[in-house]
Design brief:
Chain B: Its main location: nucleus. Chain B: Its EC number is 3.1.26.5. Chain B: InterPro entries: Pop5/Rpp14/Rnp2-like, RNase_P/MRP_POP5, Rnp2-like_sf. Chain B: This is Ribonuclease P/MRP protein subunit POP5. Chain B: It is found in: Nucleus. The structure holds two protein chains of two kinds. Helices cover 40% and strands 11% of the residues of chain A. By secondary structure, chain A is an alpha/beta fold. Chain A folds into two domains: 289 residues, TIM Barrel; 51 residues. Chain A has a seven-stranded parallel sheet with strand order 1-2-3-4-5-6-7, with helices on both faces. By secondary structure, chain B is of the alpha+beta class. Chain B has a single domain, classed as Ribonuclease P, Pop5 subunit (Alpha-Beta Plaits), CATH 3.30.70. Chain B has four helices and five strands, in the order E-H-E-E-H-E-E-H-H. A five-stranded antiparallel sheet of chain B has the order 2-3-1-5-4, with helices on both faces. In chain B, strand 4 and strand 5 form a beta hairpin. In chain B, helix 3 packs antiparallel against helix 4. The radius of gyration of chain B is 16 Å and the shape is globular. The chains are: A alpha/beta, B alpha+beta. The interface between A and B is medium-sized, with 19 and 18 residues.
């Protein structure tokens, strides 16, 4: 199982009527004239599906990118909506609204009946600069909006925002961030020193630091190598957390900048990480991060709303239960997929083992168990 | 004394962007020089010095875009990273992907033949415009024969 938690989502077309959300409408009754104007004009209708809000070439390119990710062997990806400095206070827009938890329904094994595809999650990334030092819109008013994302992340550009990202925003709440991305490209040094106490607090709270490999193909590749090494040193160099503070992700806006998981792991080893950590940084660590991100829906990451499941139910009630599960697609659906995938890969390994032995053990008489045969072969050697 | 140890990388160059059948045919020599270019660009003369002595393009098929290279085991990760950082081959953008990495040519051949079968089966399924299924069968036979003929 390989996971790419950063697939940039192209910016959708801005529709006028998106700026007058239903809540505001009631408040701004005096300004009803503009509202009426908007509703009468034909182009004010916002398409329901996130893909229909994109420009046509963007849509095609995005699909091509997702298909390439599937071909390269990824099983889970997260589309990223990037926001500069703060959420729009007047009318924050979730780019993935109306997608029912995914984007390409026919390419998502949660929805297409278990066919080949890739699980698509939604992620919000806020780039924090000086303008966002006094808050960037993660508060009680936006909780509803933030609940529409599977993962939240921050890209701090200044020392004070980095500090608040590590100390305050990684604490368990309904707007916990689980990924901190350092700006690797713009300058030969990171804009702040990654202080050990801050990094340690963030890691202890369950946040992880992200390295996007697409930077190596740009102009600032030199900066990328230096800064990525710095992130690795700060977040994966300590002994306490077992070197596991870093995840690798794509961040590739173009198809040709995507790389297969094995190649990304190898790039990780050139950054000075041990190879098993590199493997974990693209599979196990992001997986546990996704599961941890589900705790945003619970109270302080501890208490969740219990669901009663009855073992023997009449037919009518069973249908109800099914509907409920589709509603609460969060934890259960994803967890099932994750477990199934693991099971499948284990089976694949076993089958490969069996096949290999079948070929090699041709000369021998058939033995009941493969393990015996393997032992004997080892002895012969 | 220990014998000289190698790594064999099976690489697929996935073409992307404008998918036109290439007019200019890429040869293994060109791949070698492209690899030298990226390794020198990203790892400098020292990197190329570590890798270049043993780097050898053993096989390349322009139809299936499969390639087998050999490098000395000590610094094969440098060569691999060089492959990953390649963005275009002979002027065409592509995604290099290391499909398999092994210590002997035998395993590289087995993996190559297996992957070659998959690729040609996929071509058949998608119905390549200029290749009928008979042609694809002969293509499979020739590529398998070529891969099997590889020697250390």
């Amino acid at each position: 199982m390989f996971i790419d938690l950063n697939v940039p989502f192209p910016e959708p077309i801005v529709y006028e009527s998106q700026f007058t959300p239903s809540k505001k409408k009631q408040k701004q009754k005096p300004a009803g004239l503009t509202n009426a104007h908007a509703s009468t004009s034909a182009m004010a209708v916002v398409p329901a599906h996130p893909l229909e809000r994109l420009r046509v070439p963007d849509r095609k390119a995005l699909r091509e990118r997702v298909e390439m990710l599937i071909h390269l062997g990824y099983t889970i990806i997260a589309f990223t909506q990037s926001v500069q400095s703060k959420l729009d206070p007047a009318a924050p827009v979730n780019w993935f609204d109306g997608g029912e938890g995914t984007v390409f329904r026919d390419l998502d094994p949660r929805f297409n009946g278990g066919k080949r595809g890739v699980v698509q999650l939604r992620r919000l990334n806020v780039v924090l600069d000086e303008a966002s030092e006094k808050g960037f819109g993660f508060n009680a008013q936006t909780t509803q909006l933030l609940a529409g994302y599977d993962i939240l992340s921050l890209t701090p550009l200044t020392t004070s925002t980095f500090q608040s990202a590590c100390l305050q925003h990684s604490l368990p709440s309904s707007s916990t961030i689980h990924l901190i991305t350092a700006p690797l490209l713009p300058s030969p040094r990171l804009p702040y020193y990654m202080k050990h106490t801050l990094v340690r607090t963030a890691l202890k709270n369950g946040a992880r630091f992200e390295i996007c490999y697409a930077g190596v193909f740009g102009d600032g590749a030199r900066n990328w190598w230096a800064n990525a090494r710095e992130v690795v040193r700060a977040a994966a160099g300590g002994r306490r957390d077992g070197h596991e503070g870093v995840i690798f992700s794509g961040g590739a806006g173009r198809v040709e900048h995507l790389r297969a998981p094995g190649d990304v792991m190898n790039l990780g080893t050139t950054l000075g990480l041990p190879h098993e950590t590199c493997h974990a940084a693209i599979s196990r660590i992001p997986k546990s991060l996704i599961i941890r991100a589900e705790t945003r829906r619970t109270y302080r990451a501890i208490l969740s709303e219990p669901k009663l499941v009855f073992s023997a139910v009449p037919a009518g009630a069973a249908e109800d239960g099914g509907e409920q599960r589709e509603d609460g697609k969060g934890v259960k659906g994803l967890m099932e997929i994750l477990n199934e995938e693991e099971e499948r890969s284990r089976k694949r390994v076993l089958e490969a083992d069996d096949a290999g032995e079948g070929q090699e053990g041709d000369g021998e008489e058939s033995e009941p168990s493969g393990r015996k045969r393997r032992k004997r072969r080892r002895k012969n050697r | 004394m220990v014998r000289f140890k190698n790594r064999w990388l099976l690489i697929e160059f996935i073409p992307c962007g404008a998918a036109q059948p290439s007019q200019r045919s890429t040869t293994s020599k060109q791949i070698w020089s492209e690899l030298r270019g990226t390794v020198v660009h990203n790892f400098g003369e020292v990197g190329w010095g570590a890798v270049g002595g043993s780097l050898n393009v053993k096989y390349y098929s322009p139809v299936t875009n499969l390639c087998i290279i050999r490098v000395a085991r000590d610094h094969y990760r440098t060569a691999w990273a060089g492959v990953t950082l390649l963005t275009s081959l002979n002027g065409e953008t592509c995604i290099p992907r290391v499909v398999h990495c092994s210590g002997t040519i035998k395993q590289a051949q087995i993996a190559a033949i297996k992957y070659d079968r998959e690729l040609i089966a996929r071509m058949k399924e998608q119905g390549a415009p200029d290749l009928s299924s008979d042609k694809l069968d002969t293509l499979l036979a020739t590529t398998v024969a070529e891969i099997e003929a590889l020697q250390d």
